[in-house]
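Let us work through a complete example step by step.
Step 1: write down the sequence.
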Amino acid sequence: MNITHVPGKNKKGNVMLFALSTCGWCKKTRALLEELGIEYHYVYVDLLESDEQDEAVEQMGKYNPGTNFPTIVLANGKAIVGFKEDEIRKAFK
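Step 2: predict the structure and record it as tokens.
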């Protein structure tokens, strides 16, 4: 699976963003994580091959059964679904 690492100064464990390349809210989420200096990984699920796409949706579904985008999975296993700026900022204080 093509997972991209984004380095940052604020290391909060393994943070994973499941996103779509065409999603405006996903782009806003990435921009906010970068503004906050968060180190994270992300995958554009819509750009994956069929088998990998199924795998990514299955992984994301463990944290977000509705499989909505964007989904941020925090190191503690909690997920933030959608662009919830206040919740994201609070999670990375």
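Step 3: interpret the result. Helices lie at 24-35, 50-61, 85-91.
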